[in-house]
Design brief:
Number of domains: 2
Order of helices and strands: EEEEHHH
Oligomer: single chain
Strand order of the largest sheet: 1-2-3-4
Strand content: 15-25%
Number of strands: 4
Structural class: alpha+beta
Shape: elongated
Distance between the termini: 10 Å
Radius of gyration: 19 Å
């Protein structure tokens, strides 16, 4: 995926701010808003690592043990009605539910990630 940084188990989205002439990043998948920036790729990567370490230190000091979002396993997906119909037909011809079909499709896709 473009514009994504990874460090330990954390990811961050990155955008370029023409106004600031800097890369701006934000740690994703956490309850807090943690951003960082750098004027070069190396500065950005270093700032990301520092932001993660600062965030983990903050969590430790506050007694927060779950440092990343928890997921319920339930989410809504909006797709084209024709794709919805095709997926439902495929699931039924395989003898499974649409939910199982989508879950298995995601699992197969993630095997190649």
């Amino acid at each position: 995926m473009d514009n994504i940084l990874k460090y330990n188990d954390f990811i961050a989205s990155v955008k370029y701010s023409e106004e600031d002439e800097a890369f701006i990043g934000r740690i994703e998948g956490i309850d807090s808003i943690v951003s960082f920036e750098g004027q070069s790729v190396e500065e950005l990567k270093s700032a990301f690592k520092d932001a993660v370490e600062s965030y983990l230190d903050f969590c430790h000091r506050k007694g927060i043990t779950e440092t990343q979002n928890s997921y319920t396993g339930v989410f809504n997906v909006i797709i084209d009605s024709d794709l919805h119909r095709k997926a439902d037909i495929m699931a039924k011809t395989r003898g499974s539910s649409l939910n199982s079909f989508v879950r298995e499709s995601i699992e197969r896709h993630l095997e190649f990630a």
